[in-house]
Design brief:
- There is one protein chain.
- The protein has about 80 residues and is an alpha+beta fold.
- The protein has one domain (about 5-65): Arc Repressor Mutant, subunit A (Orthogonal Bundle), CATH 1.10.10.
- It contains four helices and three strands.
- Strands 1-3-2 form a three-stranded antiparallel sheet.
Length: about 80
């Protein structure tokens, strides 16, 4: 799968979303079941998400769960 071509598509399949995020499908499935869930839709038997909706959802997750370094990092 060509990532550059995938990034330009207006909608991503569930499998393409997993590739874009770099996460296994089981992890994306768990995240997608949390509320607020991203707005997936069905075309035939395949699940899709609009690219803009996926990016908005990622932005919401980034704002809701910011990463902060641990204070007692002993590495």
């Amino acid at each position: 799968m060509d990532l550059a071509a995938t990034l330009t598509k207006p909608a991503w399949s569930f499998e393409e979303l997993c590739v874009v995020l770099g996460l296994p499908d089981s992890t994306v499935e768990l995240i997608a079941r949390e509320q607020p869930a991203p707005p997936f839709f069905m075309l035939g038997r395949r699940r899709y998400i609009l690219r803009t909706d996926a990016l908005d959802w990622l932005e919401e997750r980034r704002n809701a769960y910011p990463w902060t370094p641990r204070k007692n990092n002993r590495r």
